[in-house]
Amino acid sequence: MTKTKTGQTSEISGPVSTGESSVDSNNVISNQIYKQYHTVEIDFEGPETSEDAEDNPFLNYRLDVVFTSGETTYNIRGFYAADGNASETSADKGNIWRVRFTPDLLGDWTYSAKLYRKNNIAVQGDILEADKVQILNNKGAFKVTESDREGVDFRAKGRLVASQGYYKFQNTDMYWLKVGANSPENLLGYVDFDDTYRMASSSKEGEASTTDEIHSYPTHLKDWKVGDPIWKDGKGKSLIGALNYLASTGMNSVYFLTMNILGDGKDVWPYAKPDEFTRFDVSKLEQWEIVFKHMQSKGILLHVVLQETENETMLDNGDTGLLRKLYLNELIARFGHHLALNWNLGEENGPADWSPLGQNDVQRKAMAKYIKETDPYNHPVLLHTHSHDPLRSDILDSIVGYKYVDGLSLQQDERKETAEVIERWRTNAKEAGHEWLITMDEIGKWFQGAVLDSEDPTHESLRKYVLWGTLLSGGAGVEWYFGAKHPHNDLNSEDWRQRDRLWQISNHARVFFEENLPYWRMQPEHNLINIKEAYCFRAEGEVYALFLPEVKAATIDLSGESGEFELFWFDPLNGGELQKGSVDTVTGGAVQALGNPPAVVGEAHNDWVCLLKKI
């Protein structure tokens, strides 16, 4: 039985083939060798055309490439690549058609490519009446050997998928926890990308103010290293440097919009022109790809946000018609090959008082279904929520349990309610028969978010209620939103170092979870602790992780347990190793006092994390 995965692309790592290729009498390319989880990028010479050709190369042509290894087959959509070097030449014309594919299996692979021509064929499923267009080197074979990567580089472990409410490396027993940056949302509104500019500045109530200037990230130029990617004789260094810095802090996710026409920033779009939705800017998208590829090598997940609440009805009036399908096709074809990526249906999806024209339930379900059925790699599809109920719950009640939505990119205005909201929607999804991966991605209030270290040096409320409250309630990760009315905000932030302490605090939590907890099979049981605003996460009979906002007279109810548990303490503000306190062990069968933690080494605080491990 052949396993077929339909859709579009995979993860590029540049030219990774070794050895000499050959072409036989049937024009079949062979003897190429690639590494597992590295991108196979293949170019085909086809008809000469251009971004603005009357016969639209994005809409009226379709490149399909079938990759096969044994009984496994991937159907991958290709794309128009202009001259094949557009990131350097800024070309908008040429005869190169390209496919990117990331093989997950070792051994021998073959491929066969076909280019079709017909009006609107790019968004139509029926190819029977389409003309076949001749392309060179349309068949080939290659071998895949073991990956040579290690560490955080996703090519070391493979593709992330949603599993049991968490990110998991596909076909392994390894899980992955997300911590990262939710701002600036217009990360790609960057001066070194071709044809990137701000359409109009804004100082509207309810969003961050902007000027005519777009991102240049000047303070991160020093973080670029020799050997890092650039384009066009030195462009891109400051953005690459910014990502280097963020990765060095242990952060592993970045949230960014791929289209904010009509939205807050008005400086990001994939199109050749921001008012023409069937033609794409090849060189800009190739430059995006250079950045995305570097992010993956640094262990940074691509949190791709497909639209904003202000523009979610811009394409096809919210339906998944010609324009929306074409937009999604292009993004999946060009970038879906990356191993760590999730598709976000759109910021604050659904109508609201400040943006009454929003997608309805039928429309968002159709969009999610199209992505899931088109993307051959099963990347998670998330829904970014509104910040409070009933506006949020009215939307979620209609989509919870829907099999094409893998979870929530949660927005929450009241910090103290974070744990309760996450636990409630995890429970609702499980009861509906389709577990949700829920990440806490935008903490409010909208005007504040995560302010600068200089304004809030210990980020106490974020640390207590949001970071530890999320993770100990079954959340799959946290991203930090910068707010709209503070320096270095959600639209104009240029320097991630302004929140260096916040990254450190977040990394402490990530490391604690990765080193000590089988978190993917743990459950929140906050009521087992006697202290208000404390959190408890447990794998019964095995391990307990407790967050205590204060430790005086703290107890835990172990009446349902038997045997002894060793007790350790962890400092959530200063990090470091597990430590011992005044109590070495506690015994199941009763309510037990936790004793006192060790003295704080570093900045003073009252909160501690307590770890109980079954002996």
Notes on the protein architecture:
The protein is built from 9 helices and 32 strands. Helix 4 (322-335) runs parallel beside helix 5. Strands 1, 2, 3, 5, 6, 9, 10 and 11 form an 8-stranded mixed sheet that branches. With 615 residues, it is α/β, with parallel strands linked by helices. The relative contact order is 0.10. It is globular, with a radius of gyration of 25 Å. Helices cover 18% and strands 27% of the residues. Residues 1-20 have low confidence and may be disordered.
What's the SSE blueprint?
Layout: E1 3-5, E2 22-23, E3 28-35, E4 40-50, E5 61-69, E6 72-77, E7 79-80, H1 86-89, E8 93-101, E9 107-117, E10 131-133, E11 139-145, E12 160-163, E13 166-169, E14 175-176, E15 178-181, H2 237-248, E16 253-257, E17 271-273, E18 276-280, H3 282-297, E19 301-305, H4 322-335, E20 341-344, H5 361-374, E21 381-384, H6 391-399, E22 407-412, H7 418-431, E23 437-443, H8 460-471, E24 477-480, H9 500-516, E25 523-524, E26 535-539, E27 543-548, E28 555-557, E29 564-570, E30 585-587, E31 591-593, E32 608-614
Parallel strand pairs: 1-6, 3-11, 15-16, 15-24, 16-19, 19-20, 20-21, 21-22, 22-23
Antiparallel strand pairs: 2-3, 4-8, 5-6, 5-9, 7-8, 9-10, 9-11, 12-13, 13-14, 17-18, 25-26, 26-27, 27-32, 28-31, 29-30, 29-32
Helix pairs in contact: 4-5
